[in-house]
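Figure 2 data, in text form.
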Amino acid sequence: MLAVLFAVLGGLIHTEGLRSIDRAIGDFFFGLRNDSLTPLVKGISELGTTTGFVVVLLITLIWTLVFLRNGRYAVWLTISLIGGWLLNKLLKALYTRERPDLWESLVVPDGYSFPSGNAMISAALFGLIALLLFRSGKAGNRVWAAIVLLILLLIGVSRLYLGVHYASDIVGGLLAGAAIAEICSWGAVRRSNQ
């Protein structure tokens, strides 16, 4: 279902209707900009960069290997990150959507716009972490899963505030990344139950 929704969205990215929605949402976030909020948003956005992903992956791998003693989770977490990155490169090359030029960018973007790499890879990695926490059945882990999902959403929103993506780029990235997280979650849980 996630892949189907992504394909539908991808087919609409060059339509005037979606452009109008993207402009309206982008204008809203442009209007929120102020000097005191920008450093915080840039900090949140950094969680969705290569450095942020590597740090989160390393911390998670240490946790799963040392405390949970679960090598399968460690493997699938690594697969989610690498798979998200590789698929994002492929999809960007396929859609070749240019970055927004309607608003001043507060950071220097890299590559094409759709789907958002920050949102997609975050959804793949953080989404898998959240799914594994949620499926553990422990109430405390469900709280942590909600926090991880909130961070994931904030990373996506930060890219709108910074003016480097359209809203549809973020939604597309979240859909594609969530599909990867779901596949990896199924693999991790299925293998650990055998």
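Caption note: The chain is about 75% helix and 0% strand.
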